Amino acid sequence: MNDNGTVMQTAPYAVTTDTLNLEALIHAVASTPPDTAVGPGGITSFVGVVRNENAGRRVLRLEYEGYEPLALRAFDRIGTETADHWNVRVALHHRLGTLQIGEASVMIAAASPHRADA
């Protein structure tokens, strides 16, 4: 959301060092594309966060590295395969850099004309 209270347009796939924004991600799948007659009737989301424990060991932080062009191609492939298999639109954003316990590392949203499909 920008300073005047409106939701900014968001790309469906992103790799970023910025804090992830669930509202913007949902907006990316909620807006009806011009070539689509039916808008979403259901939207679901997933937020992955950094845990404080893994396999019985304490976690202090996570550090993510990635090659953005390759990641975006993979996200696009996942979104396309998902849309081809189910009647959904997908958005996927992933963080890079150092993340602290409790911070969101990945957000995924899916929208479909019928809520059961989302």
Protein model, in words:
The chain is an alpha+beta fold and 118 residues long. It has a single domain, classed as Molybdopterin biosynthesis MoaE subunit (Aldehyde Oxidoreductase, domain 3, Alpha-Beta Complex). 23% of the residues lie in helices and 34% in strands. The chain contains two helices and eight strands; from the N terminus they run βαββββαβββ. It has helices at 22-30, 68-85; strands at residues 13-16, 42-49, 53-54, 57-58, 61-64, 89-95, 97-100, 104-112. The strands form three sheets. A four-stranded mixed sheet has the order 1-6-8-2, with helices on both faces. A two-stranded antiparallel sheet has the order 3-4. β3 and β4 form a beta hairpin. The longest helix is centred in the middle third of the chain and has 18 residues, at 68-85. The two termini are 24 Å apart. Mean pLDDT is 86; it is low at 1-8.
Which tags fit this structure?
118 residues; alpha+beta; Aldehyde Oxidoreductase, domain 3
Give the structure's gist in a few sentences.
The protein has 118 residues and is an alpha+beta fold. It contains two helices and eight strands; from the N terminus they run E-H-E-E-E-E-H-E-E-E.
Largest sheet: 4 strands, mixed
Q: By helix and strand content, what is the structural category?
A: alpha+beta
Overall domain count: 1
CATH class: Alpha Beta
Q: How much β-strand is present in the residues? A: 25-35%
The average pLDDT is 86
Helix content: 10-25%
Low-pLDDT ranges: 1-8
Number of strands: 8
The 3D shape can be described as elongated
Strand order of the largest sheet: 1-6-8-2
- N- to C-terminal separation? 24 Å
Radius of gyration: 16 Å
Order of helices and strands: EHEEEEHEEE
